[in-house]
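Structure ticket #2291
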Amino acid sequence: MQKINVTYEQLKKFMDKKKLRSQDKLVKKVKKILDKHGIMSIQRVAYLDYAKELHKKWWNFKGKTLNKEIKLIFLKWDERGLDKKILFKIAKLLKFKV
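Resolution: structure written out below.
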């Protein structure tokens, strides 16, 4: 097996790019859901922030901790008055159960 020399900075840069590409794909899918439900542009920001927050937690946590974080995020955005059905659909994109 060949040893690969990679610095921390190189690895971090690679992972950051990968996270951004993954987040960009998610945002495109969320926008399609929002279009389908006729969500106005002023409200889109909140739904996109919700999706990005879920995505960030997905990258940083696993298992029970991730499940708890997702429920907290859902409750936070539900309390802010976002449509529960749309929040569920966005969570489903990331294969989360709320």
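Closing remark: The radius of gyration is 16 Å.
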